[in-house]
Amino acid sequence: MSETQKLSKIEILKENSRQLRGTLAEELAPSVDAFNDDNANLLKLHGMYQQDDRDTRGGKGEDAKKRVIIMVRTRIPGGKMTAAGLLAELDLCDEFGNGTLRITSRQGLQLHGVLKDNLKAVVRGITDRVQLTTWGACGDVNRNVMCCPAPYRNSKVHDDMQALAYTLAEHFKSRSTAYREIWLNDDGEETKVAEFKPVEEPIYGDRYLPRKFKMGIALPEDNCVDILTYDLGLLAIAEGGRIQGYNIYVGGGQGMTPGNKKTFPAVGQKIGFAFPEDVVETVEAIVKVWRDFGNREDRKQARIKYLLRDWGIDQFKAYVEEYLGRSLGVSHPIEPYGVDDHLGWREQGDGKWYLGINVDNGRIKDEGEVRMKSAIRALLAKYPREVRLTALQSLIICDIEESERADIDAILKAHGVQAAEEQSPLRRLAIACPALPTCGLSVTDSERVMPQAVAQIQAELDKLGMSNEPLAVHMTGCPNGCARPYSPDIGLVGKARGKYTMYVGGNVVGARIGFIYKDMVPLEEIGQTVAPLLSYFQRSRFPGETFGDFCYRMGLEDLTAAAGGVTTTPA
Question: CA–CA separation, 423 vs 526, rounded Å?
Fold first, then answer.
């Protein structure tokens, strides 16, 4: 940190929080309606966000009072969990949440609508019944470590990647005992929060990180977890069925602030190579450099991508090598080039099968004829196999015998769940953030209207005879970019109520940032806005060229002319 930098309020809060305790324990009392602002910020480092139901804001009488609800996120390295754990999360959403469970775009799970008085019971339930944790799922620490979830058996490459995800998650977990003392100790136990005994935080120090830190692990042929969009990406280089090492990327990030030209989305830049035995130590050096030099005065500038802007990649690399005590290896020339959504029936490699089930926008619920939550309950009760969560907000069930496939298909069909093989690539690749009514930052809907947006674009593809064109659409309710909207073929970013900024020119692999094609697009005009671009793409594409690659090659001016109109860009 620069000697001239002032500390933001959040930095002072963390430093004086008694290692993330604050007065959270005291404010858990039923007599307290909500956590105060300081404790609400500390709550994030425990894996929770204090929110309210924005659909009920502005009412009269009792309805005018904000109804405090909590979002609780479970940290699941690599998206790997047991059937019993997922069933327990479904039980918790019924007992304490809003009756739905949400798979996140970063392989976690979220409970929405939890009341403050039930919070401790929920955290205990996740610890005891799910056998996972919310600790480190949010806040200024390393977040959930993502990894390709494909359950290929007899694949040392996949086994080693998934083992590394767990190792990194544990290595970068805060050592503070606050979580156990606040949430997991019974009243009357000997250890009290008031009896604060600090522990060493060798990675995070007194102030933890300047902001959140995200990392992911993938293969060149399958960047299904979008590693270039995170602070740190590890690309496994495999030869002869074994991982030789990892290309290291730094400085990805999706969040930005409209009107603030100092903020921007970015994809990661390659910094070097590490052998498998050196990865953890190398990642620690990267985290520590950012910890020590990241912006702690302006949180909107507190990501590695802004440090790279100010320093350049060479200076950042020099600091990493200084902290590491040796030079980084020379990176392999290969880049990510493919993506597998892991949906549908797939052979596992050991004579068994896995099944990827598309969960629209990650929301596990029963609604109308599609009873997804009941289907998952029925499947896992009868076939209690290991499950995996994908970065496209979907679910994988592992270790299925050939003889069980027909019955599983019948269970899904009986619950109105369409087979992935019958769904278009557009639908399978689409993701959205929760947005309204729970997210306090959102300016408009995302998850609730994404089916409408997908239907509009699909209708235009159908008209052109391109129903099965692989095209990724990501939507968010604000520019913070939780569903990675700046890097796919089409990104829809909430700008005002019912209106979106449309980005094009990214791609399914997430290898570059798209550009603004049109601003303030009404929800109901998304299909007609993209229609002339799709038509132009059909007429003028190169063989095998994707929509995003085509838009990037042609550029804004050419696309605008072909569309026969004038685009508008933000002021």
Answer: 21
Integer Cα distance of 229 and 215 in angstroms: 9
The predicted-structure confidence for 57-82, as pLDDT tens digits, reads as follows 766 555 556 789 999 999 999 999 99
Collapsing DSSP to helix, strand or coil, 348 comes out as coil
pTM: 0.95
Q: Are 411 and 378 in contact (CB under 8 A)?
A: yes
Helix, strand or coil, per DSSP, at residue 37: helix
Tens-place pLDDT, residues 416-460:
999 999 999 999 999 999 999 999 899 999 999 999 999 999 999
Q: Which of 21, 214, 363, 377 is catalytic?
A: 214
What's the CA gap between 31 and 411, in Å, rounded?
46
pLDDT of residue 342: 98
3-class DSSP state of 476: strand
505 is written with which tokens?
A: 């020119």
| Residue 137 to residue 46: CA distance in whole angstroms | 7
The DSSP element (H or E) to which 495 belongs, if any, is strand 490-496
Cα angle, residue 96 at apex, residues 381 and 122 outer, rounded to 5°: 85
Q: Is 143 a catalytic residue?
A: yes
HSE at residue 5, side-chain half, CA atoms within 13 A, is: 18
Q: Respond yes or no: is residue 373 known to be catalytic.
A: no
Tens digits of residue pLDDT in 298-337? 999 999 999 999 999 999 999 999 999 999 999 999 999 9
Catalytic residue among 80, 212, 288, 371: 212
CA dist 123 to 75, 330, 343, Å?
A: 12, 44, 31
Q: What is the pLDDT of residue 185?
A: 84
**Tokens representing 47?**
């894996």
**Given 147, 398, 439, 551, which residue is catalytic?**
439
Q: 398 an active-site residue?
A: no
Catalytic, out of 14, 21, 44, 73:
73
What lies within 8 Å, CB to CB, of 414 at 6+ separation is 375
